[in-house]
Request: fold
Amino acid sequence: MIDLRSDTVTIPTEAMREAMAYAPVGDDVYGEDPTINELQDYAADLLGKEAALFVPTGVMGNQICIALHTQTGDEVIVEGESHIFHYETSAPAIIAGVQLHCVPSPSGEMSEESIRRAIRPSDYYFPRTSLICLENTHNRHGGTLVGLDYIRQTAALARENNCAFHCDGARLWNASAATGIAPKDYAAEFDTLSVCLSKGLGAPVGSLIVGSSQHIHAARKWRKILGGGMRQAGILAAAGLHALKFHREALSGDHSHARDFAERLSNSPYIRINLESVQTNIVVFGFPSTIDTMEFIATCKQKGLLISQGRTGWMRAVFHFQVSEADAQAAAEIIVRTVEERML
Ligand code: TLP
Reply:
């Protein structure tokens, strides 16, 4: 079965399992797990920040960062298709007690003007805008890249307006692999970032928050509040450390498989696809509305391909290191054939 539902579906490799099995561990609530400490130091260094904190998931990473930058009743600016808005079950309202202000954009970069319009004036009847978030790469826009100059300009805008600046960098590693820009250069302007180990990097569990020592101190407290203080979790951190050291290189292979797959789809007159938006490991595409999406997904499954829906009216295919070049080609063939059979 070829599984393109997400890059979260990878199975740990033998080498990763070995690293997990023999990882030295301790009680992390006492700060005594050597593998977690090593992972945190490694990630902080890679991202050029003072400190890092291991958290179980990307959602928890984002939510802790939102909580530590805001006060109850504040407003947070996020891009209209962001993961924080669509897939985090209203957690900002529940945990930090803040409301999200969604600013639409064509591919993940909200215009300066639209952000300026979204920042609230300081009258007593407005919420206080205290945080601006970006997502890089941008999932629902199809793994699109957020540019370094754009990040710098938006950081200046955030500072000018006394807003903190956070990056949902679940796939920052993909951005870095696609552009050659070092993770620490992408990270430099943000106060905090949350980065995932369990997407294209292939660890079974885990994300990291990076930022100043002060922010990470506050993040640790928030992690405990959320019940995320883990004990001998070095077994999990070992997978993340292995992923960071050895799996980043494979990401550019995933990007070329995604590109090849997208080009094959674009040859069909019935498939809607914007090749310009295929910049990393995610491909979004559509087909005529006369085709029933659920039936299409079920037929692909019968033919050996797992695929899922993205934004309304769009399908999403995500590439990872357990999808080979031949798998990418076979997947494209299954999709083109399944669409064309329904158009005859
Ligand atoms: N994304 C998942 C689903 O939740 C949609 C996926 O299959 O792509 N930020 C971004 C940009 C993400 O794409 C995800 C997961 C997260 C945060 C949350 O990470 P986890 O699942 O570890 O909480």
About this structure: The chain has a mean pLDDT of 98. The chain has two domains: 14-248, 250-343. The longest strand covers residues 129-135.
